[in-house]
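Limitations

Structures in this collection are predictions, not experimental determinations, and the ligand pose is part of the prediction. Treat each record accordingly. The example that follows, with nicotinamide-adenine-dinucleotide as the small molecule, is included so readers can see exactly what is and is not provided: the inputs are given verbatim, and the output is the predicted complex.
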Amino acid sequence: MKTYLVTGGAGFIGSHLCEALLEKGNKVYSIDDLSTGRIENVNILKEKYPDSFIHHTSSIEDAGELIADILEKCDVIYHLAAAVGVKNVVDNPIRTLKTNLRGTEIVLDEAAKKDKRTIIASTSEVYGKAGENGALKETDDLLLGSSYHTRWGYAVSKLADEHLALAYHKEKSLPVTVIRFFNTIGPRQIGTYGMVVPRFVGWALRNEPIQVYGDGKQTRCFCFVGDTINALTGLEDRKEAVGEIFNIGNPKEISMDSLANMIKEKLKSSSEIVHVPYDKAYSKGFEDMKRRVPDISKIKELIGWEPKTSLDETINLISSWMSSD
Ligand SMILES: NC(=O)c1ccc[n+]([C@@H]2O[C@H](COP(=O)([O-])OP(=O)(O)OC[C@H]3O[C@@H](n4cnc5c(N)ncnc54)[C@H](O)[C@@H]3O)[C@@H](O)[C@H]2O)c1
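Predicted complex:
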């Protein structure tokens, strides 16, 4: 049995991670300010694991002492708390930068003082506009847009987190691993902050127009959250993963038009599919990538991980969850 601290434990990936760790008989502390996370996720876990799940509602920027205290009892920390979602990031640039820079600095600093195994969440956004010509590897050059485009502030903050994590590894021997999540989907993910699959499924279930941004020809890759959690926990005990960056994602691509059509057909929806220009959906000059595909050979070689759950199955799970929530 191990004891964990999961920051962002009320969130989509965080709550699934807590649940997987609790199911294995571990004890889990969660810190989350519920800004994009949901109290319902916390309550499910509290109800199921009253003795081994302890949640604190607090912002990580203000939780230095709490983190230090919890880390006294902890073996491993997963740092997932962050300002996320393209819409959220574009609408709240200051909060995004503060949470992702200051919050991670506090977590890494406390983890280093106690030499704790640490796994931190980064994002495929750090690749920016690179990747039009093929799958992205952890060692590839990054291609971010201009600072005038608010969107890239999220990538820059996560990239700074990556550098800080690797700097703590180099200078203080912190046993840290950086994860670059590509689009992760599943039940408990909400569409409010710009996540495409829950929005499409929600619109289809309500027979409202499915809004595809841009020309719909841009592709994305979607990984089921259960597969993502297996990748995370699979890396935790591997010495070779320390001081390293790993992509976690599903390399299978789908265009946004095809995704909209697939969801509409699967859910037997009467929604029409409409195209909305990026300028209208976000703001003037908004930049998007045509494609972003993960190369997952590094994690596959180390722990034999690859995604197992199809997009079709995942959409079934999401729509059942949305219909019952
Ligand atoms: N879901 C994806 O496709 C995806 C892709 C790339 C990266 N990520 C990364 O994975 C992590 C989890 O993302 P998610 O998809 O579960 O999103 P999420 O919004 O569900 O989870 C983030 C959690 O962090 C919490 N949080 C935000 N600011 C906080 C603060 N200052 N203090 C304490 N808690 C705070 C939120 O309330 C939320 O519960 C994030 O670090 C995100 O950047 C996710």
